[in-house]
Amino acid sequence: MKTPILDFIRSYAARGALRLHMPGHKGHGALGVETFDITEIDGADSLYEANGIIAESEGNASRLFGSATYYSTEGSSQCIRAMLYLALKYAGKDGRGLILAGRNAHKSFLSAAILLDFDIQWLTGKAGSYLSCAVDGETLSAAIENAPEKPVAVYLTSPDYLSNVLDIEALSAVCKRHGVLLLVDNAHGAYLKFLPKSLHPIDLGADMCADSAHKTLPVLTGGAYLHVSEKLSFSKDEVKNALALFGSTSPSYLTLASLDCANAVLETDFPESICAFLPKLAACKARLEAHGFRFHGSEPLKLTLHAKAYGYSGGALAALLEKEGIVSEFADPDFVTFMLSPSIGETGLKSLERALFSLPKKPFDETMPPAFILPERVYTPREAAFLKKERIETANSLGRVLASVTVACPPAVPIVVCGERMDGNALRLFEYYGIAECEVVQEK
Do 261 and 394 belong to one domain? Predict the structure, then answer.
């Protein structure tokens, strides 16, 4: 497969031209990649008006994924906002529409709600953590039928940070039966397309999904895809305009080249490397389980370790591993998450295994997180975002209304959503997860 963006950048760098254009480093700098960092010069195309090398590269990605696929250099956050805008547009909503959303939504979903002012009805499902939302077909069907108005779309996160994967095929069938779009935050699952049997949301019936290519594919940070099912009638210009609403006019050409270069890898080596890696990962997981470790969820290339089952907090276990040169993706009081890839090879798996085996097992820590209870909504996210705020200690926030979408990344999933009232359960959750301060609506 051709790599038109990468080829153009390499060719331009080889010319040694005097760069009287942006960026200011002029192709020189300490990083060593500046020579490949360009802007929309003649021949380089333009991301949101693509009709040259970027359009060709996106066409290559579209053929790989079996959808209308568009690039983002600002992560799946940009794609999430754009697909929500497109869903409202598809439903003909020139005002507020209703989105049914899994409660474990990333904060980019909330920023979209603030910008687009749609209404939200939360799906809570069955979960042992605020990071998960196990919605099944029956629950979803009842939620659609009992909604105060016909929803514009259902928005779900799968896979989530704790390795849970929803039954997108069954949930898609429910949405189609009710004539409602299904949107999936597939930020952690771009690689699902390249499993021996694809588990990618588009192949399972989703109407649109956002993939963070950089999370699980050989792509630089910020590289992402917006996939639109070919069953939808959006034109290329409509999708590009939606992405442009939420993106910079200066997209990174280094990231674009990385997405472009990935196409050739995804077409050739990557599926085979996953196929070879999965049995090795399964064997590693089985040995760890036999040693007493417990895992959570079923995502193929993610290991979420239930740290307390081995007698540690997630944070303590992650810190011990870091001393051994192993850095996890995420840790909280209960879990440690490792995001794996064929690129770590069998050597990487053995290093992880050795480090875990070296830890002495301790008594099972049976401390459980407080159960999540949906808080009272006082304001919409948009209303809350424009009110005056003050930062206070969470211990003193009982009865106050949360005012900010700010939450650490990872996991970037809010426990309480801006506009909701802090109740006793919320305070217990904040204490459990070590959140000492929060922004609340300023009292008059």
Answer: no
According to the model, what pLDDT value does residue 444 have? 72
Each residue's pLDDT tens digit, 246-258: 999 999 999 999 9
For residue 320, what is the domain's CATH number? 3.90.1150.150
Strands, E assignment, 291-382: 295-296, 302-306, 330-331, 335-339
Q: Read out DSSP for 204-261?
A: TT-SEEEE-HHHHSS--TT-EEEEE-TTS---HHHHHHHHHHTS-SS--HHHHHHHHH
Q: Are residues 71 and 127 in the same domain?
A: yes
Residue with tokens 């006082």: 378
Full residue range of the structural domain in which residue 56 is found: 4-267
Residue 390: CB partners within 8 Å, gap ≥ 6? 439, 440, 442
Please confirm whether the linkage preceding 300 is cis (ω < 30° from 0).
no
Residues 68 and 168 both lie in one domain: yes
Backbone torsions φ then ψ of 238, nearest 5 degrees: -65, -45
Res 125: pLDDT = 75
Q: Are residues 179 and 317 in the same domain?
A: no
Residue pointed to by tokens 């690039």: 71
Separation of alpha carbons 239 and 228, rounded Å:
9
Residue 411: closest CA among 340, 337, 352: 337
CATH number, domain with residue 196: 3.40.640.10
* Stretch (H or E) spanning 181: strand 181-185
**Cβ 402 vs Cβ 418: under 8 Å:** yes
Q: What is the distance between the alpha carbons of residues 82 and 245, in angstroms, rounded to a whole number?
A: 8
Q: What is the structure's pLDDT at 174?
A: 98
Task: Of 120, 81, 76, 84, give the one whose Cα is nearest residue 102.
Answer: 120
Residues 403 and 339 occupy one common structural domain: no
Q: Residue 151 has what pLDDT?
A: 97
> Cβ contacts of residue 439 below 8 Å, gap of 6+?
389, 390, 391, 402, 403, 404, 406
- Residue 335 and residue 397 in one domain: no
Whole-number pLDDT of residue 359: 96
**Structural Rg of the chain based on CA atoms:** 23
Q: Which residues of the chain have pLDDT under 70?
A: 95, 127-128
**Residues 217-264 pLDDT 10s:** 999 999 999 999 999 989 999 999 999 999 999 999 999 999 999 999
pLDDT at residue number 443: 86
Contact 135, 164 (CB under 8 A): no
